[in-house]
Amino acid sequence: MGLEERRKRERDNRRNAILKAARKLFFERGFKPVTVDSIAKKAELSKGSIYLYFNSKEEIYTQILLGDIDKFHEHFSDLLTDSPSASEALLRFAGIYVDLFLSDRELFRILMTFMLHTSDMNLPEELNSHIIKATNRNISIVEDIFRYGIERGEFPAAVNLRLNRNAIWGLLNGIISLHLFTGGESKRAEVIQSTLRLGLDIYIRGLKTCDRPR
Predict the structure, then answer these.
(1) Would 42 be classed as within a structural domain?
(2) Which residue has the higher pLDDT, 123 or 151?
(3) What are the CA-CA distances from residue 6 to residues 19, 44, 135 (Å)?
(4) Sign (positive/negative) of CA torsion 156, 162, 164, 165?
(5) Cα(211)–Cα(214) distance, rounded to whole angstroms?
(6) Per-residue pLDDT, 214
(7) What are the tens digits of pLDDT across the range 57-116?
(8) Residue 130 falls within a domain, yes or no?
(9) Looking at the structure, do residues 26 and 50 belong to the same domain, yes or no?
(10) In sequence order, what are the residues at sequence separation of 6 or more whose Cβ sits closer than 8 angstroms to the Cβ of residue 175?
(11) How far is it, in rounded angstroms, from Cα 203 to Cα 79?
């Protein structure tokens, strides 16, 4: 390994260490209480070292979210091609979505913090817009599923794509929020998955028998 390659690896390792430390802090404390000083201490680096890689706490937070959201999207790339129906695709989406957050609860809390307290974070408009666009890219998958169901005649043509997309997004996040950090650990995954399946089953059956826009 050459000197330049070794230096690049060291820089990458240090940058990743900063992001990992910050991720833990944002999960434990939320956005506001975390400072660059606390991130540096957690990463066992000097404050000056942090600024060699990032301009601010806001930039660190944004990079964490964008990195996680991009990875998140990859899990749904073949959802429609591998599902026999839109209903099945919706159930599969929900299952994958929940499994991802069950295995990475830090991500869920950080994402919810952003969604619920965006105005409190004072993120630069460019960074805020970037995160919203990346998040909408994932939400649009649900809209694609509904569109697929309409094209196949599985769902009524009058279905309002955006409203139903938002309703499903709210259903998923609401159930996860209700159970992810409460109750017995041993049955938590089972409770979340079963509640989601029941909720989606009721929603899908109602949608299929409704001729009015929703």
Answers:
(1) yes
(2) 151
(3) 20, 21, 35
(4) positive
(5) 9
(6) 44
(7) 888 988 888 887 777 777 777 777 778 899 999 999 998 888 888 888 887 888 887 777
(8) yes
(9) yes
(10) 192, 195, 196, 199
(11) 20
Q: Are 102 and 58 in contact (CB under 8 A)?
A: no
Residue 155 contacts by C-beta under 8 Å, 6 or more apart in sequence?
Answer: 86, 146, 149, 207, 208
Q: What is the pLDDT of residue 134?
A: 81
Distances (CA, A) of 194 to 91, 140, 165, 169: 11, 24, 21, 17
Distance between CA 144 and CA 150 in Å, rounded?
A: 10
End-to-end Cα distance, the chain: 60
pTM recorded for the entire structure: 0.77
Give the residue numbers spanning the domain of 43: 1-54
d(CA 157, CA 151): 8
Q: For the chain, what is the domain count?
A: 2
Residue 214 lies in a domain: no
pLDDT digits (tens, 9 = 90+) for 134-153: 888 878 889 999 999 999 99
Residues 47, 140 within the same domain: no
Q: What is the mean pLDDT of the chain?
A: 86
The per-residue pLDDT for 115 is: 77
Structural tokens at position 93:
């989406």
pLDDT at residue 211 is higher than 60: no
